[in-house]
Amino acid sequence: MAIGKKIIMLGQLRNDRLVQVYDLVYKTKTKFSLDNLIPLKKDTWANYLMGVMDEMQKAGYPLQGANLIFISNIPKGAGLSSSAALEVVTALTMAKLNLLEIEPVEMAHLCRRAENNFVGVACGIMDQYVSCLGQKKYALFIDCRTNEYELIPFRNHDYQIVICNSKIQRGLINSEYNKRREQCKKATEFFAHKLGHKIQALRDVTIDEYKKYQRQLPEVIARRARHVISENYRVQAGIQALRTGNYSTFGQLMIESHQSLKDDYEVSCEELDLLVDLALKQEGVL
Fold first, then answer.
1. Are residues 34 and 88 in the same domain?
2. Given CB 3.0 to 4.6 Å as the disulfide criterion, which of 14, 86, 104, 284 pairs with 132?
3. Is residue 123 domain-shared with residue 190, that is, in the same domain?
């Protein structure tokens, strides 16, 4: 879902292959050559920009050097996709400066590859998709297998999405993200062996199939799989709830999602759990 936070970048073409970048918020700058894009150990924030330019060139898009300056009010490490926003605004700016036409879905995947291959984070596509395709008053449904997407209206004036900052910073490189992906991969391989050819990902496992074989999985792997399988069902149910204006059901599904993330996927924290508990005690909160 699009939120009221943004990143703004201004760019100016150069006559050489040098890129100079200045961050107005942190008052820091860096420079690099388009002919020598190597991840930095210092000023690692620049790796997100460099990775995008690297992937653009690998995709055959010709780039010139540029002077770039940007400002952002998206909190870093707060789970609001600040890195994806930086990647997408870099891709948009470089495309505009170099008179390139890149479709939003292609741009999202290009930015994801930048984060996977250059930055070294095995992230999914969700953050880049919503940065490229999100719209005000719509939730974005993404099918990561087919690359299809759908904007789902969220227009009830009686309800608003409230974002609360727990002040707990999260970094995907140093987080448990990559470990969870590996655990889910093991679960997928288990179900593929048990159920045959039709299992390419955990989304292909039904809840009944999961219940039938869950005791044969290691306890931790079983909980990770339960989260993913049940979350896929919650997403589909959530879409139907929004389409029919059943916001109470949508709220209940969000509560269940948090509990699953907390207990089965174990990616919550005490501060976030407290925020949820306090919110649910407030009148009008679904």
1. yes
2. 104
3. no
The tokens for 132 are 């490229």
Per the annotation, the verdict on 127 as an active-site residue is: yes
Q: Where residue 95 sits, what CATH number does that domain have? A: 3.30.230.10
Beta bridge partners of 68: 11, 21
Domain assignment of residue 73, given as a range? 7-137
Same domain, 132 and 191: no
Name the catalytic one among 23, 54, 127, 264. Answer: 127
Task: Say what the pTM is.
Answer: 0.86
Distance CA 162, CA 31 (A): 38
Please write the tens of the pLDDT for every residue from 108-122: 999 999 999 999 887
